[in-house]
Amino acid sequence: MEKLLEIKDLWVEIEGKEVLKGINLTLPLGQTHVIFGKNGSGKTSLLMTIMGFPVYKIKHGRILFKGEDITELPPYERAKRGIGIMFQRPPTVKGVKLRDILKLCAKENKVKIEELAQAFQFENFLDREVNKGFSGGELKKSELLQLLVQDPDLVLLDEPESGVDVENIQLIGEMIKKLLQKDTPHKPRTKSGLIITHTGFILQYVAADLGYVIMDGEIYCQGNPIEIFEGIQKYGYEGCKKCLKRLSF
Amino acid sequence: MLEKAVNLKSFKSAKVAPTPKDFTELSEEEKEHLKLLGLDENLKREGEYVQVDAIPLLCKRKVEGLEILPVTEALKKYDWISDYYWKAVSSEKDEFTKAVAEDLDNGYFIRVLPNYKLVYPVQTCLYIRTDNIAQRVHNIVIVEEGAELNLITSCSVHPRIGSALHIGISEFYVKKGGKLTFTMIHVWGEKTSVRPRTGIIVEEDGTYISTYVTLFPVKNIQTAPVCRLIGKNAKASFISIIANHPGSYVDIGGEVHLEAEETRTEIISRNVIYGGENIARGRIIAKAPKVKGHLECQGLMLSDEGVMKAIPELDSYFYDVELTHEAAVGKIAQEEVEYLMARGLSEDEAISLIVKGFLTIKIEGIPPALQSQIDKTLELAKLGF
User: Fold this and answer.
1) Quick check: A247 pLDDT over 60?
2) Which pTM value belongs to this model?
3) Are the C-beta atoms of residues B217 and B190 closer than 8 Å to each other?
4) Residues B358-365: what's their mean pLDDT?
5) B358–A53: do the CB atoms touch at under 8 Å?
6) Which pLDDT score, from 0 to 100, does residue A248 have?
7) CA torsion B332→B334→B339→B344, rounded to 10°?
8) pLDDT at residue B288 in the model
9) Is the CB of A94 less than 8 angstroms away from the CB of B340?
10) A151 touches chain B (CB under 8 A)
11) What are the chain A neighbours of B347 within 8 Å (beta carbons)?
12) Where is the SUF system FeS cluster assembly SufBD core domain (chain B) (predicted)?
């Protein structure tokens, strides 16, 4: 199976503090993997490092995307190559409308922004300053709409269900399914996803192929995501530690 | 070393400048430049006035209810003009007002007759095309009772000019229930000195909205319009959108006197500092009870080479008033840059978009034609690095 993303022995620091300690991970084309971990475990650091934000200093290891070493590339080059990220807490960009960003995300993609926004009941937000005064669910919709327009091959989703009320979670799930081509189950998928979550609730709406547990910057186990999630619900993350099935590659 | 002061004696009179007969004598480059500033025949305008150096080259009225004349003609035509001439600005204010009082080149006189509400803008342009001259201008605008005027003034210099000085006296009168939306878009040169001296008087239920846009390098500008709200429920808004470049000294103020009950004002400035020195002053003086005023100044520092000073002042002589101010000066948030980079923008493109967003102010009451001219100027300025 074609490898879309490969992470090899990745060690990362932020301001001198080690946050990722030898991460190895392979994401095949068309698959969705989910990473479980409690707050501060290194989940967000992993996504931000894959996206290439400079505050995450890679001390060792490589990141390959579509076979190309992208370890040294800035975020916009990674975006151009087909990586997109949904931020958990995106910033407000003063004076910049959501529509402005969507147009930039679209680039050559011939996307009908208005129609897409309408489909997810978000057309009234197009001319608002991006993220300003948005509720939790609105922030997620804004992020997912940007990704739908950007149309990346690898989608990085940082806590997609956090801060979303019950009414909106279904719609957020629909948007993620569309993004990952899970709304057309019989077609071969070309989009892949890496989802991080600490509650795991998103699994009720989006099916994942493989799950991992990350703790203290290390991946401890991998397997069926539903089984891992049920284990976490039953024993907590401490139970994962006791299991001590740390992966070695 | 920034040159903040102006030596009046070092400039020649604009009257000695060679006089073009009409627009055909301007070069294609100049015509294109002026077109970008809004002198475009494809744009709908109710009237136009263009002054080149000391000479009015175009003065055209297109609708009923509007009078537009070179001010020198208006001074001859109307004896009542003495009620407006040097009444909102004192001729003794400083050396620049004295210089214009002593030797006036020209300027525009615009009057909108009572209850005429002009839909499209009136466009004026004060253009300097000759090296080393001082252009001395006096403008008078009267918006009569219940009338409305949208005025765009584009001031600029020849794209290849050396040093120049523009002194512009402007006196604006908004009568009872009238509305004047005044948008100044300035594209000066890095050797141009600019000294506008502006006074505004707004009567009961009148509205004055001023937007000042200067996004290109200039040698120095110093101005502080004084607005008096003399009638109940009169309103004034001052918005400044400034990009301060290396070598530029820009000192922009605004002073509003709330002289009648229920008058209100806001003074808002957005300043992006690439270099040079920027001073954003604002002063609101409550001279009557039940008034409201808000001052807001924000500066975005893009370099360690520049200086930004925010100087807000609030004066009150009554207890039942509401005066507020907020000021913030800082750098671009890295998380905003990275957010946009994750969407595929390079760092320069991200900074440019953030700066443009910072300078984009939604101005309440401004008509779409004026807003689009401001937006166009923001595009032209190619903000960022």
Assistant:
1) no
2) 0.85
3) yes
4) 77
5) no
6) 46
7) 90
8) 98
9) no
10) no
11) 74, 76
12) 130-358
By the CB < 8 Å criterion, does A80 face chain B?
yes
Is A79's CB within 8 Å of B342's CB? yes
Phi then psi for B58, rounded to 5 degrees?
A: -150, 135
Question: B383: which chain A residues are within 8 Å (Cβ-Cβ)?
Answer: none
Q: Please answer yes or no on whether A53 and B338 come within 8 Å at the CB atom.
A: yes
Answer yes or no: do B344 and A146 touch at CB < 8 A: no
Q: What is the pLDDT of residues B216-270, one digit of tens each?
A: 889 999 999 999 999 999 999 999 999 999 999 999 999 999 999 999 999 999 9
- Helix (H) or strand (E) segment spanning residue A34: strand A32-36
A 10 A CB-CB count for A186 gives 4
B interface with A, Cβ–Cβ < 8 A, is: 333, 335-336, 338-347, 349-350, 353-354, 356-361
The domain locations on chain A are 3-243
A188 touches B at CB < 8 Å: no
Q: Is residue B348 in a domain?
A: no
| DSSP assignment string, B39-81 | --TTS--SEEEEEETTEEEEEEE-STTEEEEEHHHHHHH-GGG
Distance from CA of B245 to the nearest CA of A (A): 21
Q: Has residue A245 got a pLDDT over 60?
A: no
Q: Which helix H or strand E contains B13, and what residues bound it?
A: strand B12-13
- As a whole number, mean pLDDT of residues B73-98 equals 97
Mean pLDDT across A209-224: 91
Would you say residue B352 lies in a domain? no
Under 8 Å CB pairs connecting chains A and B tally to 69
Per the CB < 8 Å rule, is A96 touching B354? Answer: yes
Contacts of A80 in chain B (CB under 8 A): 344
How many domains, in total, are found in chain B?
Answer: 1
CATH topology for A3-243 is Rossmann fold (3.40.50)
Q: Tell me if B109 is assigned to some domain.
A: yes
Reported as a single tens digit per residue, the pLDDT across B162-178 is: 899 999 999 999 999 99
| pLDDT mean over B178-190 | 92
In a domain, B385, yes or no: no
Å between A222 CA and nearest CA of chain B: 28
Query: How does pLDDT run across B298-336, given as a tens digit for each residue?
Result: 999 988 989 999 999 999 999 999 999 999 999 999 999
CB-based contacts of A16: which residues, under 8 Å, 6+ apart?
Answer: none
